[in-house]
Automatic annotation (TrEMBL), chain A:
Membrane topology: Multi-pass membrane protein
Residue ranges constituting the ABC transmembrane type-1 domain according to the UniProt record: 17-205
Family of this protein: Belongs to the binding-protein-dependent transport system permease family. HisMQ subfamily.
GO annotation, biological process: amino acid transport
Places the protein is found: Cell inner membrane; Cell membrane
Cellular-component GO terms for this entry: ATP-binding cassette (ABC) transporter complex
Transmembrane segments: 20-44, 56-79, 85-105, 175-201
Keyword Membrane annotated: yes
Protein's name according to its UniProt entry: Amino acid ABC transporter permease
Keywords, alphabetical: Cell membrane, Membrane, Transmembrane, Transmembrane helix, Transport
UniProtKB/TrEMBL annotation, chain B:
Compartments in which it is found: Cell inner membrane; Cell membrane
SUPFAM superfamilies: MetI-like
Name assigned to this protein: Amino acid ABC transporter permease
Keyword Cell membrane: yes
Organism: Chelativorans petroleitrophicus
From TrEMBL, chain C:
CDD domains reported in the protein's UniProt record: ABC_HisP_GlnQ
The name this protein goes by in its record: Amino acid ABC transporter ATP-binding protein
Keywords recorded for this protein, A-Z: Amino-acid transport, ATP-binding, Cell membrane, Membrane, Nucleotide-binding, Transport
Domain of life where this protein originates: Bacteria
PANTHER family: AMINO ACID IMPORT ATP-BINDING PROTEIN, GLUTAMATE_ASPARTATE IMPORT ATP-BINDING PROTEIN GLTL
Length: 216, 167, 243
């Protein structure tokens, strides 16, 4: 079993990368949907709902993702659900992402200046029209850099799923490192793959930012 | 410097930790789990805080420096009495939350078995088989730490930057 | 019948009484300049007329709509009242043409072609036809303010409210905006404008209203009141802004 780290092994890492990407995408979509709900619950003028949401956000943001992964991985079976590492990771990371997306989007919504609401109102736009055509388009633009920034965190954090045994890039590297006895090369290669994905994402965000017209 | 910041910020802490702990021995650098964790976490925090500090100093309007120099202050005095206070005030919140994030991230050090909360849990788990309860408890105990640190940080912020300095 | 009428309007922010019983009539085609110290309640008065602020007492009628009636249709009111602010509140994510077209399509229910036609005409009217596709952040403050005026005018308002629209501009850009206002005045547009440009108030306005501590302290024909102020407060104010 012991051999050199070769091109074929790098291929194996790349193959495992699709699970990293898939997990990140799942967390993005699941967390994105839940995050919208979180953002809305946070701004609706219903006090108890706001407090509940703030509690949820603080709980998720105040505890380590690894702990959340473990709680889901070991906890869900207690409710009679037989979950594999993939399901636990996808669930935990979606919940994790929802707290961050929710806060990012609420902040973006609230950072559109009040006078933009007034400008819309003074043209006779209804509340919904102001929201749909004036406020949300601006909030979306404002939210792009922090949203992409968090997606980068999400991609990196998928590595923690390795610790509950989900075979993505990091877990694959551990297996590969054990097989080849070339841990340095293997982990550097893995780092390289993560870097390409994350740096690429940040770069896209910067390009977008420059091309969108956002209030200053 | 730029490359260091970008490399660290765009790769997972866990992989950085693996490189230090499992990778470096290839080069003859052998660290025990605790040392490796300390090195990896420091390198990681270093990159993030470099970025935060750079952004903070850049956010300070040039006119502040010019105003200082125009009053006849030396470059050093301008830095000491004008730039420093404002820059630290601007940087502080981001630095504080980065610290909390790092504290939460210490949980992954258990992956290489350093003595830290989660590792203790793995130990307890093997004896009690009540992994869910144990992990939930440990996870929630981080919440206490987070709340505690956040409270402490806001208190310091208030004492230093909000309360008017004594006249 | 007057186009705008305020009867004993009282406006409070918490315990701070900002308008202490303001009464005012503005006729169709009239141009009223509102002057007064900062904090005297000028902006608040304009904002109440456009229902951006609710009032605590009194009655406001605009073009037959009772603004202060419970359940009054504020969007209908605002579609008829044009308002331009000190901070040029263009929508930063839309280019000039789409800034003007937005309310035409949503409120006036125009087709895209109709709205484009109106937008082009209005933007040309303020002398910016070559900027139709520019974004607000590509325009100077004066140009942005002219677009904001065009955007309001496109709605064919029966009255225009201007709140210190030249105060945030560099001095060399003030002229181009005032010129647009002068043209509007010649067309017979009813206008209420808060301004610190006393020369402009004197030459363009029919009437000047001087606000002081939440009340209309003095009012009268522009030429006369500015030349011979009747109260010490207005005299002090004028000597402060003119020197
Ligand atoms: N939204 C608000 N909340 C509390 N006070 C306000 C608000 N808007 C205005 N004021 C106060 O009302 C007074 C009149 O303001 P304003 O009408 O803007 O004056 P002007 O336009 O004449 O300078 C000021 O004292 C101001 O501080
Ligand atoms: Mg004002």
């Amino acid at each position: 079993m012991i051999r050199e780290f070769a091109l074929a092994d790098f291929g194996y890492l790349l193959l495992a990368t699709r699970w990293t990407i898939l997990l990140a995408l799942t967390a993005m979509l699941g967390g994105g949907f839940l995050g919208l709900v979180v953002a809305i619950c946070r701004v609706l003028p219903i006090r108890p709902l706001n407090w509940l949401t703030v509690g949820y956000i603080n709980l998720i943001q105040g505890t380590p993702l690894l702990g959340q992964l473990f709680v889901f991985f070991f906890g869900l079976p207690l409710f009679g659900l037989s979950v594999d590492a993939w399901t636990a990771a996808a669930l935990a990371m979606s919940i994790y992402a929802s707290a961050f997306f929710g806060e990012i989007w609420r902040g973006s919504l609230q950072s559109v200046p009040l006078r933009q609401w007034e400008a819309g109102a003074s043209l006779g736009l209804t509340y919904r029209q102001r929201l749909a055509y004036v406020i949300i388009p601006q909030a979306v633009r404002i939210s792009i850099p922090p949203t992409v920034g968090f997606i980068v965190q999400l991609v990196k954090n998928t590595s923690l799923a390795a610790l509950i045994g989900f075979i993505e890039l990091t877990r694959a590297s551990q297996i590969m490192a054990a097989a080849t006895f070339a841990p340095l090369q293997v982990y550097l290669a893995a780092a390289g793959i993560y870097f390409v994905i994350c740096f690429g994402l940040s770069h896209v965000s910067q390009l977008l930012e420059r091309r969108l017209h956002v209030a200053r | 410097m730029r490359a260091y910041v970008e490399l660290i910020r765009n790769t997972p802490l866990l992989v950085q930790l693996f490189i230090v702990f499992f990778g470096l021995p290839t080069l003859g650098i052998r660290l025990n789990a605790n040392e490796a964790a300390l090195v990896a976490l420091s390198i990681n925090l270093g990159a993030y805080s470099t970025e935060i500090i750079r952004a903070g100093i850049e956010s300070l309007p040039r006119s502040q420096i010019e105003a200082g120099r125009a009053l006849g202050l030396t470059a050093l005095q301008t830095f000491r009495y004008i730039v420093l206070y404002q820059a630290v005030k601007a940087i502080y919140p981001a630095l504080a939350s980065q610290f909390v994030l790092l504290m939460l991230a210490t949980s992954i050090v258990s992956a290489i078995g350093a003595t830290e909360l989660f590792h203790q849990a793995a130990f307890i788990e093997s004896r009690t088989y009540r992994s869910f309860e144990v992990y939930t408890l440990i996870t929630l105990s981080y919440l206490l730490l987070t709340v505690g640190f956040r409270g402490l940080f806001s208190l310091v912020y208030w004492a230093v930057f909000v309360r008017r300095p004594s006249r | 019948m007057s186009l705008v009428s305020l009867e004993n309007v009282v406006k409070r922010f918490g315990s701070l009484e900002v308008l202490k019983g303001v009464s005012l009539e503005v006729d169709k085609g009239e141009i009223v300049a509102v002057i007064g110290r900062s904090g005297s309640g000028k902006s608040t008065m304009l904002r109440c007329i456009n229902a951006l602020e609710p009032v605590q007492a009194g009655r406001i009628m605009v073009d037959g709509i009772e603004v202060t009636a419970p359940g009054a249709d504020h969007n209908k009111l605002r579609a008829r009242v044009g308002m331009v602010f000190q901070s040029y509140n263009l929508f930063p994510h839309l280019n000039v043409e789409r800034n003007v077209k937005l309310a035409l399509k949503l409120v006036r229910r125009m087709s895209d072609a109709e709205a484009s036609e109106v937008a082009r005409r209005m933007v040309a009217k303020v002398g910016l036809e070559d900027k139709l596709l520019a974004y607000p952040d590509e325009l100077s403050g004066g140009q942005q303010q002219r677009v904001a005026i065009a955007r309001s005018l496109a709605m064919q308002p029966t009255i225009m409210l201007f709140d210190e629209i030249t105060s945030a501009l560099d001095p060399e850009l003030v002229g181009e905006v005032l010129k647009v206002l002068e043209e509007l005045a010649e067309e017979g547009m009813t206008m209420m404008l808060v301004t610190h440009e006393m020369h402009f108030a004197r030459t363009v306005a029919d009437r000047v209203v001087f606000m002081h501590e939440g009340r209309i302290h003095e009012e009268g024909p522009a030429e006369q009141i500015l030349r011979e102020p009747g109260t010490a407060e207005l005299r002090n104010f004028l000597s402060a802004v003119l020197h």
